[in-house]
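Researcher: For the annotation table, I need structure tokens for DNA primase. Please keep the output clean. Sequence:
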Amino acid sequence: MIPPGFIQDLLSRVDIVEVVGRHVELKKAGINHKGLCPFHGEKSPSFIVSPTRQTYHCFGCGVHGNAVGFLMEHSGLGFVEAVQDLAQQTGMQVPEDERSSEERERAAQQKQRQATLTEVLLRASDHYRAQLKKTPRAIDYLKKRGLTGQIAAQFALGYAPEGWRSLASAFPSYDDPLLTESGMVITQGDEGEEQKRYDRFRDRIMFPIRNVQGETIGFGGRVLDKGEPKYLNSPETPVFSKGRELYGLYEGRQGLRQRGYALVVEGYMDVVALAQHGFNNAVATLGTACTAEHVLKLFRFTESVIFSFDGDAAGRRAAGRALEAALPHATDVRSVKFLFLPTEHDPDSYVRDLGADAFENCISEAIPLSRQLMEVAGEGCDLSSAEGRARMLATARPLWQTLPQGLLKRQLLGDLARRAQLPDQELMGLWQVGGAAAQEQAHDDGREHPPEEAHNAQSSEPRPFKKKEWKKDWKPSGNWKRRGEPEDETIGTPRSAPNVPADHALRMLLLNSAWWERLSPEDHHLLHELPGIHGELINWLDRYLLNHGSSPWSVLEAALAEDGLLERAKRLLGGLHSEDESEFEGLQNLLKKLWIAQLETETTRIAASNPQGEEFERYKRLLAQIRTLKAPSSTPT
């Protein structure tokens, strides 16, 4: 990775006014420069570039960052490419990262392979767009769906002709194995004359799927007339994973900022039709159920997500899967809602038939996650009977348990208890969370506790409080008076809790933000799920890095201050100094401790439920993971 010190030196040499001024018309406004924001439509300038702080900030959409972040956001460059671009402008040489030559070579080969595949897919996209322009039948279909040429161009819509080998005219060699690897051509049979090759997509409207950087990574194709399947998607490839990507996210980045929430729908045409009617913040899953990775990716852009589903049985089932995916990430500062349309409508038909205002009203009436959980739990249950209420609780319990610790989880417990006609404390005892609640209070700041204390916190039987009884005639014994020692100057001052692994890990990442990309997806997930302010700051850091790339502490400090988080971060972590010399290995060791703590908590919970069958096997696997992590030579999961 590029050393943070080099980034800081680079940012000190470039002039952000000059960098931004190449793309935005800026005018002097006092000590700053002002212009129209390039990231959202506006008529009066609210985009400020500060030469003293070397940052930009839009008071309209909230986007902010440094020169590297601007190039990434505006030009779609990756972090390394943006750094290299700026370094070239200043005559600086980007240093090599700390990985071994073999690791760098493998990474370079993988990157080149992915770049080659995205070039193939972009060429196919250009071919399909050209075919659309000269196919009246396809153009008429899009016009009947209410789409304009402008919106078709924005989403790069195209058309795959009816022929079996249409792509042969777009590529020098139809036998190129990259066409098969990219999913554009299907190959059957062994190599040789008997091998058959033909286009995957034929006679379909083509929807290019682009990643956050704007690279074409796959396609969705819809039939023009009747036919099966109605939608056909690219297969999994080295650059395309259905469980991670969202259609329309690249096109909707500006809309997410403007509207303040993400609208998740089920179909490509829903996304495009909604954008046509002003809802430019819609995204769609790619023919699969909504996954936890989808939800986590959306929360990097916004704190509010609304799922929109058809009102039929299939839509209800899809909503159930989305609920399960969203629950682990539903912290107290996030909003998740569910919108159900009439059974005869999907978002596309609804907004075309009834208009944007009617759809806006539906959004305002979306059901919050808490109520959706209650409805899913109570579905088919007769709550007037004890049996029905017991069944409702049995359904609700696994859903409720996946919620992160916090006020939302506590309030839902009370709601479920009242609905089941049980006292809150009784339900808490039944679900064995009396100790968990105490543990949450003790561990909310991520601090470690002795094993005995942790064990007692997990116990379903709360320890009785014994009041200390003082004897009337008590007198101090021994020579307890001071013997002339100097007065302790810390007496009477507020006590601060010692730093713990979560504190240290967060501090190291803020001071060395480039390390975030070196962590595994599992480590990212672990850090995102930290309770309280730790998780909130990690989520903030992830969103910042996604939009702006790694930055020195001085830049992050300014961004935290703008978002009102700086004082909370400093209270939690103490003094932060950019001259920190901690090593990446130290961060890995801290993550190992966090993994061990999480796994031990989970094994304690499972052990208390007398596990059998698969649950017992899982318990054994977790114990094995803990032993591996505690071994001297182990590395973080």
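Researcher: And a one-line annotation?
Model: The two ends are 20 Å apart (CA to CA).
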